[in-house]
Design a protein that fits this description.
272 residues, two-stranded antiparallel sheet
């Protein structure tokens, strides 16, 4: 799809250049200016029509896709902004012995959340070795037994834009880290890691905990399930309100339809 767009753009440029060259050869410099002026007016009219069509589609036709991870990320950013005390400044990474700490971005907010964790239950066998505990599922097969717990997590909303103007168009990054992996929450905050890695398409985690599925994938999956359940409950409430007449706007539309009377033609009398 992207290559087709590039080919179309190249063909359009070649056609425009060819028209300008032919206009210069057959009509001279004045004809060339007339053709150039006509092209500019045509492109301007097409751009205005395209913008109007796009605006109508965006405002009235477009169906908004429910991106659960993006919605959760937006909610976390809002929570971080509301929890920002103004004491936090820059976010740094500690690096290693051969490298000094690195500036990663400006902290715009912070909040602390509790996430669920999924730990494998361990047991000691007859030989004294430690191995995962297993249970029988409903089909009679053995599967690993898990213990569901909770763990605290610090969430930072961070801006990586170079200046205030670029910050207006930036979507802030969300960094999630265990409290024991950073220093005090005053002034500049340093995370004890080499780099921050984007897990999925929404959250950054320290490189030394990105593979800890207990607090990354499992926590994100749990949050997604909860958001989907809440969205379904909102839809269910709308259906119930419409069915019971509590939705005033829907009831008003029904009443307006019932007021409209269909004209009935009178029976035709036949003469004897």
């Amino acid at each position: 799809m992207e290559q087709k767009g590039k080919k179309g753009l190249i063909i359009a440029v070649i056609v425009i250049v060819l028209v300008l060259v032919l206009g210069f050869v057959f009509l001279g410099i004045r004809g060339l200016f007339k053709i150039f002026k006509w092209l500019m007016i045509t492109l301007l009219i097409l751009a205005i029509i395209g913008f109007v069509v796009w605006g109508v589609w965006y405002l009235f036709i477009r169906k908004e896709r429910f991106d659960v991870t993006h919605v959760n990320k937006t909610r976390l950013i809002e929570s971080c902004h509301r929890g920002n005390t103004g004491l936090l400044k820059g976010l740094f990474l500690s690096g290693d012995k051969g490298h000094s700490k690195v500036f990663w971005g400006k902290i715009t907010g912070w909040c602390r959340i509790t996430v669920p964790t999924n730990n494998i239950k361990l047991k000691i066998d007859e030989k004294g070795d430690t191995k995962p505990s297993t249970v029988l599922n409903k089909f009679g097969d053995e599967e690993i037994e898990y213990i569901v717990g909770t763990e605290e997590q610090d969430v930072f909303s961070v801006s990586t834009a170079g200046n205030w103007f670029m910050r207006l168009f930036e979507e802030e990054k969300v960094v999630r880290v265990r409290p024991d992996l950073h220093d005090d929450l005053v002034g500049d905050v340093t995370i004890d890691c080499f780099s921050l890695v984007l897990v999925g398409d929404s959250y950054f985690f320290p490189n030394n905990s990105m593979l800890d599925v207990r607090i990354t994938d499992y926590a994100i999956l749990f949050e997604s399930k909860r958001s989907i359940a809440h969205e379904q409950m909102k839809d269910f409430k709308t259906i119930v309100d419409r069915a019971s007449g509590l939705d005033t706007e829907h009831q008003k539309r029904i009443d307006e339809k019932s007021i409209f009377e269909v004209p009935v033609s009178s029976p035709v009398r036949t003469s004897r």
